Amino acid sequence: MAPTVAVAHYPEGAGHATRMLAVADAVERRGGRVRMAGGGAGTQFVALNGYDEFEPTDVDFIDTFQGGSTWETLSRSLPASLSRIVEYQAWLTATEPDALVTDDMFAAMAASRCDVPLYVLKHDMPSLYRDRIERAGAGFHTRFQLSAAREFFYPVVWPESGGDPEAATRIPPVALDGDGAVDDPPDVVVVPSHYSSLSTIADHLRRQGYDVLDVADDEWDPVPSLLPYVRGADAVVCSGYSTIMDAAVAGTPCVVHPATDEQRAVADWLERFDVDGFAVADRPIDVLDAVADPPTAPEFENGADVIAKRVLTDLRDPDPYAEADDDAASTADQVTTATGLRSLVAVPTLAAVAATTAATTVAPARIGRGVGERAARLAGVARGVGGRLGSAGARAVAGLRHGSSAASRRVRQVASESSHGAAAAGRTVADAATETCSSVSGGVRSLGSRVRDGLDAAAGAVGSTGRGLAARISVPSVTGVRQ
Predict the structure, then answer these.
(1) Alpha-carbon distance 246 to 231, whole Å?
(2) Which of 99, 186, 252, 422 is deepest in the core (most CB within 10 A)?
(3) pLDDT, tens digit, for every residue of 394-428?
(4) What are phi and psi of 324, to 5 degrees?
(5) Long-range contacts of 204-211, Cβ-Cβ distance < 8 Å, separation of 24 or more
(6) What is the DSSP string of 149-192?
(7) Rounded to the nearest 5°, which phi and psi values hold at 110?
(8) Closest C-alpha to 382, from 338, 339, 352
(9) Complete edge-to-edge strand list for the sheet that includes strand 99-102
(10) Can you tell me the distance from the alpha carbon of 228 to that of 291, in angstroms, rounded to the nearest whole number?
């Protein structure tokens, strides 16, 4: 029987989906079966490529932190993160894939709890970032995924450096290829990211006489793969790393106009190593100049084939030197119990640490203004976690059809465990919040105990609500299969 590989993408931006779709297509070309998951901004591209994917709760840290505040990160992204992990765990338990390939940290956490062999695809290393919060966050999920993954794939266009993780496998850039060439391709392809707009630049290019394809135009209908259009163009203008990898595989000169912190970090590395095929333009006028005098064309293979070959080889011929886990469960039906929820507790812990760092080293004014009101509201967030976990369980079941009774029992078990994890999460946030408040000035220090008292009470409510989740779950089904 052909191995079944679950492929899950991060929900922020369509580029994550197209990158993981490249892996899915490569797996199928080599004889594997694929189940897709991820949701978010890339859902329509997954559907265009013929998959019916599982869609867990959406998470958006870029919007809440870079475009919002520490408070928004805690109140919105934290509960969504908990829900996403629980839903992924239920999905993996019900579908039982032979392996998971993902660029989504939350899917990786769920896989480690379900004993599903994990393969990670990730490019945003801690060394990319200058901001201490973002460096710490990237360091956290990089270290976790390096330790949990059977193999950690690092797709890059720049040469080796001291910033590369020692245990990572460097591979060529990953891009979703298409069938055939495009008739009458444009001169320039403009590809904004989920968090940027390049429409003004596209208009200026048109006024200068270029035939421009702006994928953000209302009249442009999304296509299964943009790579054939990029390959046929003289240049591509973009913000994010996914399109940079498209341009690298297509062999098309690329002008990078970054918008978010991650995009600026990638642009800095392109400039630092003077990578052939890429020009960084910080201002719109610089973009126009770079398109008029583009860099030399890049030359890279497609790393998706490397990933597919490695994963399927592992599944068909496991490592003979791998050591058996003496503590592993003796039956395939068993789902990891209390220790399996450590990943859930790690999410609120990380959020609390990030809040502490933001308050003490990056933006002290954030905690100085209205700290008393926010501390009181934080208790409400903890109470909301239980409710969101309940909704998460309902969505996990509603999104799964035709499951067996055995799968149903396993999903109930996962949901029951989530109630204990939610209570533990509430206590973890309480402890971290207390430490945060005690590190500020004396007037704020006393708030720590009040926050802890409020959250300890909220933890009981979280646990009670979470325990009700198991009672509401019925028979799951299996989604994420190509239609």
Answers:
(1) 9
(2) 422
(3) 454 444 444 434 444 444 454 445 444 444 444 44
(4) -70, 145
(5) 204/284, 204/288, 205/237, 205/288, 205/291, 208/288, 208/292, 210/186, 210/291, 211/186, 211/187
(6) -SEEEEE-SSPP-TTS-TT-EEE-------SSPPSS--SEEEE-
(7) -65, -40
(8) 352
(9) 33-37, 4-8, 99-102, 118-121, 151-155, 169-171
(10) 19
Cβ-based neighbour number of residue 435 at 10 Å: 14
Exposed (0-12), middle (13-18) or buried (19+): which is 28, by Cβ within 10 Å?
middle
For residues 146 and 79, what is the distance between their CA atoms, to the nearest angstrom? 25
For the chain, the residue count is 483
Reported as a single tens digit per residue, the pLDDT across 179-227 is 778 989 999 999 998 777 899 999 999 999 999 999 999 999 999 999 9
Tally: H helices and E strands in the chain:
19, 11
DSSP 127: G
Q: How many CB atoms lie within 10 A of CB 322?
A: 9
CA distance 107 to 84: 8
User: Where are the strands (E) in 62-127, listed by range?
Assistant: 99-102, 118-121
Q: Is the pTM of this model over 0.85?
A: no
Question: In this structure, is the dihedral angle defined by the CA atoms of residues 339, 64, 390 and 403, taken in order, positive or negative?
Answer: negative
Contacting residues for 317 by C-beta, under 8 A, at least 6 apart? none
